[in-house]
Design a protein that fits this description.
By secondary structure, the chain is an alpha+beta fold. It has one domain. The protein has three helices and four strands, in the order βββαβαα. It has a two-stranded parallel ribbon with strand order 1-4. Strands 2-3 form a two-stranded antiparallel sheet.
Length: 95
């Protein structure tokens, strides 16, 4: 799945663990090398994004979600420009 996410104006207050366990410990090294990155860790997200992720959860299996605002380093303008160019392909291939 893929989501495009605008951060909004409310205060980010929901804890999102990326490639971690319930305590927020990094488990990124257990991932295939192509997936390992500096993404592992904890970020805080706003209400609407949290609601969307909650709606996408499944009780019986993991759901992988690519989210532009999380998966693209927002502070790296070179990466951001390159990723924006391939976003149509990402969304086309996503469920």
């Amino acid at each position: 799945m893929a989501l495009s996410y605008w951060w909004g104006e409310d205060e980010p207050r929901h804890r999102l663990i990326i490639y971690g366990d319930a305590e927020g410990r990094n488990v990124g090294n257990a991932l295939p090398p192509v997936v390992r990155s500096s993404l592992a860790g904890v970020v805080y997200i706003r209400d609407k994004f949290n609601a969307a992720l909650q709606a996408l959860r499944h009780a019986e299996y993991d759901v992988n979600v690519w989210v532009d605002a999380i998966c693209i380093d927002q502070g790296n303008y070179e990466e951001k420009a390159a990723q924006v160019q391939v976003m149509p392909d990402i969304f086309h291939c996503a469920k």
